[in-house]
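ok new one. same drill as before - structure tokens go in, u give me an amino acid for every spot. 254 of them this time. try not to just spam alanines like last time pls lmao
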């Protein structure tokens, strides 16, 4: 019931997705995913899967690099928009399913990608999803993805507090100012949860990425930052002299 409820909310979010969510593909974002895919595409790999493809921004890239691309999502609204984006592509196959059930892909995928889709707050669903992904990736295959970073929210909060203190605000007011601009009312920091417009999401600490990928059977886990654009953050223009917030990019081997 919970997963179907979330699928409904994600379907509803599809119509205004670009306006409401951080975009890791903007030209002013430093995103290591695309270069990593280029390197893998030059090897003898043929099949890729975009797991939680959303409205499909990555699908044309994958379709150019791989012979077969599976576009997987559990939200009908997301898949509708992704199909529109890929109307002229003949090597993209759309699959409506949850990441907790990827039996149709077992042993078929050379490169799996999950961009901001491993966000279920239920660790039981997270573990099931990662084990299903591991089963889908062939021996010697690869798993790449991006995960929203909870530590980046703490970083952003620190900068907002310092900005307010520099303007002469007392510490209590500075903290209130930071909490308001960083939307602290939407977070449960102890458990890494973020709730927005009915959508429940898990934001990651870097140690969690390593732990869960290793726990699920992946090896050679590498982490680096996706440096986001300050233009997508409240007060970002005033903080643009500082390094920007980030999401976590990961790459692991099957």
């Amino acid at each position: 019931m919970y997963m179907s409820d979330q699928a409904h909310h994600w379907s509803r979010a599809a119509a205004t997705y670009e306006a409401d969510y951080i975009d890791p593909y903007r030209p002013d974002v430093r995103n290591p995913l695309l270069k990593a895919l280029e390197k893998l595409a030059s090897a003898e790999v043929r099949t890729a899967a975009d797991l939680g493809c959303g409205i499909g921004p990555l699908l044309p890239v994958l379709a150019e690099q791989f012979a077969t691309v599976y576009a997987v999502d559990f939200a009908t609204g997301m898949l509708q928009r992704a199909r529109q984006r890929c109307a002229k592509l003949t090597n993209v196959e759309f699959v409506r399913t949850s990441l907790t059930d990827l039996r149709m892909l077992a042993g078929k995928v050379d490169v799996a990608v999950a961009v901001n889709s491993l966000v279920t707050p239920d660790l039981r669903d997270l573990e099931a999803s990662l084990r299903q992904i591991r089963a889908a990736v062939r021996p010697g295959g690869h798993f790449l993805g991006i995960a929203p970073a909870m530590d980046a929210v703490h970083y952003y909060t620190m900068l907002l507090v310092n900005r307010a203190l520099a303007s002469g605000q007392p510490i209590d007011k500075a903290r209130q100012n930071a909490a308001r601009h960083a939307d602290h009312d939407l977070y449960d920091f102890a458990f890494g949860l973020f709730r927005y417009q009915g959508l429940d999401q898990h934001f990651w600490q870097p140690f969690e990425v390593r732990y869960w990928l290793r726990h699920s059977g992946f090896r050679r886990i590498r982490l680096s930052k996706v440096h986001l654009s300050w233009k997508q953050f409240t007060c970002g223009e005033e903080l643009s002299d500082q390094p920007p917030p980030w999401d976590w990019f990961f790459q692991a081997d099957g």
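The radius of gyration is 19 Å. and btw Residues 150-166 form the longest helix (17 residues).
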